[in-house]
Design goal:
Cytochrome Bc1 Complex, Chain A, domain 1, 6-stranded mixed beta sheet, alpha+beta, 11 strands, Pitrilysin family protein, 18% strand, 42% helix
């Protein structure tokens, strides 16, 4: 969202391939904030980041989009930072910053030259302690968010595909509405609603602060205590605990997108949340099916049969549930039903036969490469540490995840495919350009 590109800083933050365990110290402030410090002098860069355990699933009907709205709103300024100055302060001090929101958390970070550590801590403490949330900021950001929705989703080809799938896959859990919310809800949510949301979720006991990079841990701890220690503890938060009824027969539906000319077919299976080992196994299954040009679905449908211009299987992992999707776009006038049958055939092979030893070796190597590449920058390490604490209750999850990946067997992949990827447990969505194309089914 909000980003200043400074190439030298990004390069400075790059690390050698991670072969050793990531060392860190952690402690809690008296207000309940978890603090994680990672010392690494490879480059003169420091990342300050805060992950709040609040996402779109924590909203209520009629006020969707609030979590993402806050990602914008909290750049408006604070008691000590004038409106529009947050980004300027970052830029003037040689830094970069960004923020993003998911269904489960909101994440803010700054990357600075290491001599600007205190600047990063001050900025994030101001966001938490002294945010300015008023009618002017809400009005300004409401227009910004609505324009983002138009550009990135409503007017983007296939922009509403995931939202259309989730709306059918989840009927009770808040995952069924999109992160950005609806235009109606954005207009109907007023200043008192934002103030209440901030008071409930933007509290130190609902956050983890990670400081990673070229730091002195002793000095950094003192700075953290000075900037964040005085912030009052917030009320205890009751987490979303909504259970979906099992899907016991195939659900078939249609959605329309005026921005596309070529239809698509999606099969979606509701699966387990990220804390479960099966979620990692499903990630590996998706690599077998569509991880690159040598994957099974790609070779069959794009290279050999040439009935698809794109095909993909991916595991959309979230905190409470997951969604496993197979997706294809036809080549010309090819039948969507045939694409679905071809994808189903490859899923069935995973269920009935073990993958080959050669495929498994390649899969393990790819999984390890993906893990290492995701943690080869200071920013990547900071986010992984924050996510480990937020979602697994274990900051050290970063150091154990690779062992978990290596423990997965060919038999695990087969059993997980048999457990979750069944026709009577899924939603099939025909995603069409317009109603006149419904006959394409």
């Amino acid at each position: 969202m909000k980003k200043i590109n400074i190439g030298f800083l990004l390069l400075a933050g790059a690390l050698p391939a991670m072969a050793q365990k990531v060392k860190f110290t952690e402690f809690d402030l008296s207000n309940g904030m978890r603090v994680v410090l990672h010392e690494d002098h490879t480059a003169p860069v420091v990342v300050t980041s805060v992950m709040y355990h609040v996402g779109s699933k924590d909203e209520v009907p009629g006020h969707t989009g609030m979590a993402h709205f806050f990602e914008h709103l909290l750049f408006e300024g604070s008691k000590n930072i004038k409106k529009g100055q947050f980004m300027k302060i970052v830029s003037q001090n040689g830094g970069q910053n960004n923020a993003n929101t998911s269904q489960d958390r909101t994440y803010y970070f700054e990357a600075f030259p290491s001599n600007q550590l205190e600047t990063g801590l001050w900025l994030e403490s101001e966001r938490l302690m002294h945010p300015v949330i008023n009618e002017d900021g809400v009005k300004t950001q409401n227009e910004v968010v609505k324009e983002e929705k138009r550009l990135r989703i409503d007017n983007q080809p296939y922009g509403n595909l995931i939202a259309s799938v989730f709306n059918k896959l989840f009927t009770k859990h808040p995952y069924h509405w999109p992160i950005i919310g609806s235009m109606e809800d954005l207009d109907n949510t007023k200043l008192p609603d934002f103030l209440a949301f901030n008071k409930k979720y933007y509290a130190p006991n609902n956050a983890v602060l990670v400081v990673a990079g070229d730091i002195d841990p002793v000095k950094t701890k003192k700075l953290v205590e000075a900037y964040f220690g005085p912030i009052p503890k917030g009320p205890a938060i009751e987490r979303v605990n909504i259970k979906e009824d099992p899907i016991t027969q195939q659900i078939v539906d249609t959605a329309y997108d005026a921005n596309i000319q070529i239809p698509a077919i999606v099969a979606a299976y509701r699966t387990v949340g990220m804390k479960e080992r099966d979620a990692i196994v499903l990630d590996m299954a998706s690599q077998i099916l569509s991880g690159g040009a040598s994957s099974r679905m790609y070779k069959k449908m794009v290279d050999q049969k040439k009935n698809a211009v794109a095909v993909q299987a991916f595991n959309y992992t979230l905190e409470d549930y997951g969604a496993y999707l197979t997706f294809a776009i036809p080549n010309g006038s090819q039948s969507l039903d045939q694409l679905l049958a071809d994808m189903d055939e490859e899923v069935a092979k995973l269920q009935t036969s073990l993958i080959s030893e050669a495929e498994f070796t390649k899969l393990q190597n790819q999984a390890e490469n993906d893990f290492v590449s995701g943690n080869n920058t200071m920013m990547g390490i900071a986010e992984s540490l924050a996510s480990g604490y937020t979602f697994h209750g274990n900051t050290n999850y970063l150091n154990t995840e690779l062992d978990l990946i290596k423990s997965i067997t060919r038999q695990d992949i087969q059993e997980v495919a048999k457990k979750y990827l069944n026709k009577d447990q899924r939603v099939v969505l025909y995603y069409l350009p317009s109603k006149k194309d419904e006959a394409a089914k």
